[in-house]
Amino acid sequence: SFKDLIFQEDIHSYTLNGQNLTSATIYIQRFHSKFDGWNVAANMIKSLNKDKTTSKEFTTEYLIYRWKAQNEVSTTNGTRIHGFLEYNFPDFTEEPACRQEAGGIEFFRNLDPKYKVLFLELRMYHEEFGLAGTSDCILLNTETGKLIVVDHKSNQKNLLQFYKDKTLLFPFEGLFQTALNEYSLQLSLYKILLEQATSYEVEALWVIHLSDGDWTKLDYSKRDNQHSHKYKVDRVIPN
User: Fold this and answer.
1) pTM value?
2) Which among 79, 140, 212, 236 could disulfide-bond with 116, CB atoms 3.0 to 4.6 Å apart, if both were Cys?
3) 3-class secondary structure, 166
4) Distance between CA 111 and CA 184 in Å, rounded?
5) Across the chain, where does the E strand assignment appear?
6) Looking at the DSSP assignment, which residues form a beta bridge with residue 147?
């Protein structure tokens, strides 16, 4: 269904019949406010310098630099982890280089036998809307004949965290601007791309958070409040 799509890994671009398509990750950015890093950092610096026990004061520039460096490391790690899972599935004979890669192995090895892995890194598009995206994994539920769209996330941040009650933008202003809510929009878009081009129905959208060597399927209803760093979740249902 998507054989005509061309993807350039180095610049993360999608092309169809000579026309550039908008990636899903870029498209959903229109639904959240731009991060005002400078003002956020400035406010945090005031608190850090007030409470610190060292003689040297922190600066806003330092915090911005640190965030940028951490983001670059996170992006590089995410690319490596996705590549490891794609190229080592299903045997996983190569030793994992980090606990997130080990968590990805555990996810696949502990899948219920009713789920069959159909695709890894499936690139999809919607020609009319000019959109494209890549799903990390597509599963088939052999009992229902329906599909599950899976996305692996390896970032270390709290996926349910939001800043000063900030919400997503129209038409999703009823949802807090959390990473999990943004991921739900991304996976909902993948569902549209998949269903408009095939005869299959998508029955579930899973965000798999690979953190500290654990894999957990994310869902608000099963959040373990006693251990807030754990997210026991089933699926993300689009709102």
Assistant:
1) 0.81
2) 140
3) coil
4) 21
5) 5-8, 13-16, 19-23, 115-126, 131-141, 146-153, 202-211, 214-217
6) 140, 202
